[in-house]
Write the structure tokens for this entry.
Amino acid sequence: MTATLLTGIGLLATQDDELGELADAALLIDGSTIGWLGPAGQAPAADRRVELAGRCVLPGFVDSHAHLVFAGDRAAEFTARMTGQPYTAGGIRSTVAATRAASDDQLRANLARLAAELRAGGVTTFECKSGYGLDVATEARSVRLAAEQTPEVTFLGAHVVPSEVDRTAYLESVCGPMLEACAPHCRWVDVFCEQGAFDEAESRAVLRAGVAAGLIPRVHANQLSAGAGVQLAVELDAASADHCTHLSPADIDALAGSATVATLLPLVEFSTRSPYPDARALLDAGATVALATDCNPGSGYSTSMPLAIALAVLQMRMTPAEAVRAATAGGARALRRDDIGRLAVGQRADLVVLDAPSYLHLAYRPGVPLIHQTWIAGQPA
């Protein structure tokens, strides 16, 4: 294996509690992992050197919430929303029709395009949900195709109830034949616990069935209104409660006292002109916070983690350091991964080189393409 030394790093923001931030640093990539990091003047020999000329290096972004297997778009719905129509859960059904009608090759090509966008934007690990099939065959092919791109695949048959199916019969399918067809390709099970989607009892049934099938729960929680989603996520030891837009003090306390990560998705609020989550209250209470894109064709059609970071700082009162932490180490926690999200010896060599001297520029220069290089498992992406 070839050892590569990245040197001339202006700021190495490791997101590791012991290492912190290192100025004038270097980092040795040994195969697919990090072999050494420290002051540039103490760097070991390597087979090749890459001079970074004072640029900032971060762990690769971890996008722990994305919906990338779909066909078509919902630009008309977006236009209607911009003229005053509120966002509701029901718009999903138009994407379901397009996804069912698409071929595997069409879905695969769109998924590959979005995955390439994520990598170009500094994402080195991403989660991908089903949820636009809502029948056994289309859900099963959705997770199968997603597994071609990422090991972090989520079964989201419980997105909404399709209009042509009896509600009780659909819930039985999600917890039975649909789950059985999808589970071999998945690591996670998710449910949209929300008015217009699935209530608390239905959501609990879906998640318990998923756990019984060997999957780990995560929850779409408290996005459109206050509800039971966060408390259910904590009760079932879900890896994350995602959205967290409408939280009570009890919800915040529950998250702070649990291992469940509060995953915030500011690109959705940006795209839907909705109130942003209270990130400050979560952080001040001691909850672990992650940032993710929620890239999807309805409520937030963006793959930009840098923009999510900028919005977290500019609209949700997170500090730049907190936002970067949430987009890296926080995302890793939301995926229960200990090999990514920080830079330390033995970690997978997933990292982002910014065309800037500091990560502060991600919020300071919103919308500017600052990703100079993305490295995944020790290789340039």
